[in-house]
């Protein structure tokens, strides 16, 4: 099973067998996985951020490690170090928890900036250096970092340059009443329900093959121009002090390809780009002082930017690709 749509459907179904109401989050986690992206997952306590990440890792069959980020954790606790063995009289390389396909960095904003930087460097370079030896990280490799937006005492907010390393920022919200009712029913029937119940539905090799298929997804020149228009608008908006970087443009391109592929399309349409605008842009924009004083939220700015840019026509989007409905 190397078809991106089949992989997404299988993972979605397996995660949904335990959690309910997280379909959009699972779709975007799958998009990140298929495009070598990293995710910042934000939500209040109790909305199953870590559980979702664990379920996702188990369903994909990938090796996963969880790192509980605290103020006393050191960079070597993440990347690894050399340990002296008295029995042999030699140093032995001890790899850290970052050596996994899926790394869950729980409450990343509780770690010190130095430790955050060590993790983010591994995310960008996809290798770490321990005692002068450079070691490649596993492939595929994705970091899912969680953070709580309401408890800020004793935390270290990620700087703009480090937030930019995350392909997307996802918000885990509270479930609606129907979903929470179903959640109560499931846990009433099975109090031990949790990530351990999830089964592997895909292999690492199938994921790598799906990544190649995503990379081949067609993106018309008009859609690329649409992406550039959106990113440029963040840099010229009166509400924004610092707009999105070229890394955001690349994130748009890659994630739109993946969304098209998991919806069983061979080409990207404008709605692929539009649906991913907030998770790609929200953590990258630095609002102006006037916008902050006016209590303007980043989501509203992104929505205003989307509304201000006219998407390309159907004819320009599909070009030589088969005719299809374009949103």
TrEMBL record:
InterPro entries: AAA+_ATPase, ATPase_AAA-3, CbbQ/NirQ/NorQ/GpvN, ChlI/MoxR_AAA_lid, P-loop_NTPase
Record-level Gene Ontology MF annotations: ATP binding; ATP hydrolysis activity
Domain AAA+ ATPase: 35-176
Key words, A-Z: ATP-binding, Nucleotide-binding
Pfam family, one: AAA_lid_2
Coiled coil: none
UniProt cross-references to PANTHER family, sorted A to Z: MAGNESIUM-CHELATASE SUBUNIT CHLD (PTHR42759:SF1), MOXR FAMILY PROTEIN (PTHR42759)
Protein name per the record: ATPase associated with various cellular activities AAA_3
Lineage start: Archaea, Methanobacteriati, Methanobacteriota, Stenosarchaea group, Halobacteria
């Amino acid at each position: 099973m190397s078809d991106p749509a089949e992989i997404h459907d299988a993972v979605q179904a397996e995660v949904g067998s335990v959690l309910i109401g997280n379909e959009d989050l699972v779709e975007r986690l799958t998009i990140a996985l298929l495009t070598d992206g990293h995710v910042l997952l934000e939500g209040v306590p109790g909305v199953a951020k870590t559980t979702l990440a664990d379920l996702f890792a188990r369903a994909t069959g990938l090796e996963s490690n969880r790192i509980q980020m605290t103020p006393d954790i050191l960079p070597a606790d993440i990347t690894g170090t050399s340990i002296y063995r008295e029995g042999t009289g030699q140093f032995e390389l001890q790899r850290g928890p970052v050596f996994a396909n899926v790394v869950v960095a729980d409450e990343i904003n509780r770690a010190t900036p130095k430790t955050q930087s060590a993790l983010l460097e591994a995310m960008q370079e996809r290798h770490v250096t321990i005692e002068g030896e450079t070691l490649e990280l596993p492939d595929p490799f994705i970091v899912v970092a969680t953070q709580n937006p309401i408890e800020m005492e004793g935390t270290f907010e990620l700087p703009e340059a480090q937030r930019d390393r995350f392909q997307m920022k996802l918000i885990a919200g509270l479930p609606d009443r129907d979903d929470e009712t179903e959640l109560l029913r499931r846990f009433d029937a099975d109090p031990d329900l949790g990530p351990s119940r999830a089964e592997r539905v895909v292999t690492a090799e199938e994921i790598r093959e799906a990544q190649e298929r995503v990379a081949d997804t067609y993106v018309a020149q008009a859609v690329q121009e649409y992406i550039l228009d959106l990113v440029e608008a963040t840099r010229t908006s009166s509400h924004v002090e610092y707009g999105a970087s070229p890394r955001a443009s690349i994130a748009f391109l890659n994630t739109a390809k993946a969304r098209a592929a998991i919806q069983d399309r061979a080409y990207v349409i404008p709605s692929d780009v539009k649906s991913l605008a907030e998770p790609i842009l929200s953590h990258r924009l630095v609002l102006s002082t006037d916008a902050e004083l006016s209590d303007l939220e980043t989501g509203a700015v992104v929505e205003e930017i989307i509304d201000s840019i006219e998407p390309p026509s159907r004819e320009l989007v599909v070009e030589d690709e088969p005719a299809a409905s374009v949103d």
